[in-house]
Write a structure and sequence with these properties.
Blueprint lengths: L4 E4 L9 H16 L3 E4 L13 H11 L23 H13 L3 E4 L3 H13 L15 H9 L5 E4 L6 E6 L3 E6 L7 E3 L7 H11 L4 E5 L3 H14 L5 E5 L2 E2 L15 H6 L4 H9 L14 H7 L10 E2 L2 H14 L2 H14 L7 H8 L9 H5 L11 H7 L4 H12 L7 H15 L4 H12 L7 H8 L1 H15 L1
Parallel strand pairs: 1-2, 8-9, 10-11
Antiparallel strand pairs: 3-4, 4-7, 5-6
Helix pairs in contact: 1-10, 6-7, 9-11, 12-13, 15-18, 16-17, 16-20
């Protein structure tokens, strides 16, 4: 078996879509599983859509996701350069070859003519495709018009008889009638190649063995196979990935939630959780396991286990996964990440480590640190409506007063002392269970849920606990 070589070939047109990250991941996993090469190629030939900073965003997203590529920008090899805008001479040499063989031709049609053609085809319920108006212009005439500066593009001369078959690893054999395959533009009027032409030339020259990409490219694959045939090149194996869907099964879009990888980085998701989550958007191992290390994914990943059907992007599942990954972090790793987030949130405290450990199991993402640590950074409690109800219960006042009195026997409040204190309060008041613990939590934190109360007390210290109990008694009036 020849070397497995796959590529991730995004266009720098803005943010990094989560669908693009999944495409990159599946290529990466396939390469690593098969001890092959993972190549990054920047498809920047559409200068009208180029966005400044998009390449940097892309490289940062791959670095964040710990997806190292073997060849690409900054890792040049004999197959570079890896920016298509730096490969124009290569494309020009190959387009000349198929023009000379009359497998491609210049098209001089104006935008107005093409617009009118499309409108007429639509009105007649015909397939919208080029009508071949310039397809049979004599070579000498075409050359003369080019020399005199007539604006033109280069189109492929698609065969109009027979069928073109695509053998797809995920979808099986897919057939396209050649008469319905457009004479695709290969070189635009600005001299830059279209995606279709540059893609085929580069995949061949970079010795790509498998093309793994989204299913939206499946209809174009017939054109790509025809181009491979024009050049007499070996066709790579194809695998077209299922669409990502919103919960209502419409195509994933920004209208129904975040679709940019940058958004999830900004919200404090762990790369390990995101990788685990998107790996399961279309692929499964054949069992019920949901949490995978990257080593497990590499070991188990095959293209044959990818589904044809669209995969629903369930944000609740991602949130659950991220919380599980945070809980499973050892404290040193967790504190390292959490402290960076405290800096971003401009939060400082001498009990920083204890506070972070106290809220660890409460976090869905690291951005939740602001909300979950609030109780530790305010002098007085801010009661929720539910907390007020518990504070105002008839037995709560006596609990607060007895607790204050019993605290007088201790010079400080530690975890062990707090446990003994609550036993003393229970014995004196005969209040126990939720009726004992919930009013105390409500008085000290202002909420009915939060970190374990003994940990909260240990961080607060005796003076703050006394102050908060007095606030609750005063609130009752």
């Amino acid at each position: 078996m020849s070397e497995i070589r796959v590529r991730f070939a995004p266009s720098p047109t803005g943010y990094v879509h989560v669908g693009s990250l999944r495409t990159a991941l599946y290529n990466y996993l396939f390469a690593r599983h098969n001890h092959g090469k993972f190549i990054l190629r920047i498809e920047d030939t559409d200068q009208t859509r180029y966005v400044e900073g998009a390449v940097e965003n892309l490289l940062n997203a791959l670095k964040w996701a710990n997806m190292d590529y073997d060849e690409g920008p900054g890792k040049d090899s004999d197959d570079g350069p890896f920016y298509q805008s730096q490969r124009l001479d290569i494309y020009n040499s190959y387009i000349k070859k198929i023009i000379d063989e009359q497998k491609a031709y210049p098209c001089f049609c104006s935008e107005d003519r093409l617009k009118k053609m499309r409108e007429e085809q639509t009105a007649a319920n015909m397939p919208v495709m080029y009508d071949g108006f310039c397809r049979n212009i004599p070579v000498n005439e075409a050359r003369k018009r080019i020399e005199q500066g007539d604006k033109h593009v280069i189109r492929m001369k698609t065969p109009k008889n027979g069928i073109t078959k695509v053998n797809d690893i995920i979808r099986g054999e897919v057939e396209f009638r050649n008469e319905l395959i457009d004479d695709q533009v290969l070189i635009k009027s600005d001299g830059f190649p279209t995606y279709h032409f540059a893609n085929v030339v580069d995949d061949h020259l970079m010795k790509i063995s498998h093309v793994i990409r989204g299913e939206e490219w499946l209809p174009s694959t017939s054109k790509h196979i025809i181009l491979y045939d024009f050049f007499g090149w070996q066709i790579p194996q194809y695998a077209h990935l299922p669409l990502l869907l919103n919960p209502d099964r419409s195509k994933l879009s920004k209208r129904q939630g975040d679709v940019a990888v940058e958004d999830y980085i900004e919200k404090g998701y762990l790369p390990e959780a995101m990788i685990n989550f998107i790996a399961l958007l279309g692929w499964n191992r054949g069992d019920d396991q949901e949490l995978f290390t990257i080593e497990e994914l590499i070991n188990d990943f095959t293209l044959e286990r990818i589904n044809k059907a669209g995969a629903v992007f369930n944000i609740e599942k991602l949130q659950w996964m991220n919380s599980q990954y945070i809980k499973s972090m050892d404290n040193d790793s967790y504190l390292s990440v959490a402290r960076e987030w405290l800096k971003k949130l401009e939060i400082q405290d001498e009990n920083e480590a204890d506070i972070l450990i106290a809220v660890k199991d409460r976090l869905t993402t690291f951005k939740d640190l602001r909300k979950e640590t609030t109780i530790f950074f305010r002098e007085m409690a801010d009661y929720s409506n539910e907390a007020k109800e518990w504070i105002l219960k008839s037995e709560s006042k006596v609990v607060f007063k007895v607790m204050l009195k019993e605290m007088g026997h201790y010079s400080q409040l530690t975890l062990e002392i707090f446990k003994q204190l609550m036993q003393d309060v229970q014995k004196t008041t005969q209040v126990k269970g939720k009726n004992l613990w919930m009013p105390v939590r409500a008085a000290l934190t202002g909420e009915l849920a939060g970190p374990e109360l003994p940990m909260v007390i240990d961080i607060f210290g005796k003076n703050k606990v006394e102050k908060l109990l007095k606030q609750a008694i005063e609130y009752r009036g």
